[in-house]
Amino acid sequence: MVITRALMEGEIDDDGRAKRTGNSLTATTHIITVVIGAGVLALAYAMAQLGWIAGIATMLAFAVISTFTYNLVADCYRFPDPVTGKRNYTYMQAVKAYLGGTMYVFCGLVQYTKLAGITVGYTITSATSLVAIKKAICFHREGQQAYCKFSNNPFMIGFGILQIFLSQIPNFHELTWLSTIAAITSFGYAFIASGLSLSIIVSGKGQPTSITGTSIGPELSAEDKVWRVFSSLGNIALAANYSTVIFDIMDTLKSDPPENKQMKKANVMGVTAMTILFLLCSGFGYAAFGDHTPGNILTGFYEPFWLVALGNTFVVIHMIGAYQVMAQPFYRIVEMGANMVWPESDFINKEYPTKVGNIRMNFNLFRLVWRTIFVILSTMLAMAMPFFNEILSLLGAIGFWPLVVFFPIQMHITQRQIKKRTLKWCMFQLLSFVCFLVTVTAIAGSVHGISQDLHKYKLFRYRQ
Hints:
Layout: H1 2-8, H2 24-35, H3 43-74, E1 78-79, E2 86-87, H4 91-99, H5 101-142, H6 153-166, H7 176-202, H8 222-239, H9 246-250, H10 259-289, H11 305-341, H12 346-349, E3 352-356, E4 359-363, H13 365-384, H14 388-416, H15 423-456
Helix pairs in contact: 2-7, 2-10, 3-8, 3-10, 3-14, 4-5, 4-14, 5-6, 5-11, 5-13, 5-14, 6-13, 7-10, 7-11, 8-14, 8-15, 14-15
């Protein structure tokens, strides 16, 4: 009776949960926070390996495919009807509803492995940017010939300590403020990187480029060129990917107009903004540095040192927010599982209301312990393998085909009851197969790059 009255008064939604208030604009903000992140810094390097024609074509292709398949996902938020059906709160629930238990398990393994891995990537990115700030200041004070190499480890530890505190935020719905700040800073460093690259081009100091990318010669064998191209596909795949949190984003949307319509609009706005920034950063970066384009474009600049420092500061601020946007779904699935296994445990389920200044929040012992352990482990893994491009490429490759292409297509086929071996079915399967090949080649290139790096550097002793 109380629920019925609250539903009539608009206090709760049709599923008995608190009224959702998100819209296309807030969903776009979440999308931008996720996609315009660590991956954008590696795109100039990817463009340098692929060249102008393949580089631009690949980024546009990823954008078109992503928009198409994410719109398919938007129709799967509710089951069986995309407007009036029962809500799927997670990607895994949607896969289970449409495709069954086996696919449900496969989806969970891929999705949450990637979510956990991305926190490692963001830790590496933040430390890389903090070291870049220190190097810019060092070169400004001591001159370009000075020895300015520093360990990433202290910065990773500091970043991890901060994430331990932020990880106590109970759920995704309380992240809008953090996501908004992160989205604003993402535009900041993307435009700074583009602007610094453009200033080099305008000054006439830009390096030679090619329609086929980096030149094969004494510094680069044909074999290494191929491996770099493969790895670059993973970098672009990561930059264009927000599949791991798309259902969490949709679960913030109000139900009128229908969530799928709002999300489709957000997909178009988010991917369009993403693609424009990607092309600016990658194109200007490649034109500025040519064959010697750095893996992280901002690390290639040292002057004006204050602007370089500001750009890298924006990166760190963004990584702080994006880390939580990506980690919260992973936290939630573990805590939901623990609640189902031990429903009577006070350690796992009891909330203790606390107040810090004017801020009220709930304190939970299990959340404190397990999230702290997770952040510590992800930080240690980042310290052990702080290889920016290769780790990001591997993360992008792992999730691209299954989460961005395969599951959306299979759910759509089931939802619309598309018959096998019809033209439409064959076209969907062809798209899925081509994207599978892209994923396999990107994984191979990433693993090869990590293997080479591990032979060059000792664990926990990497300096840049």
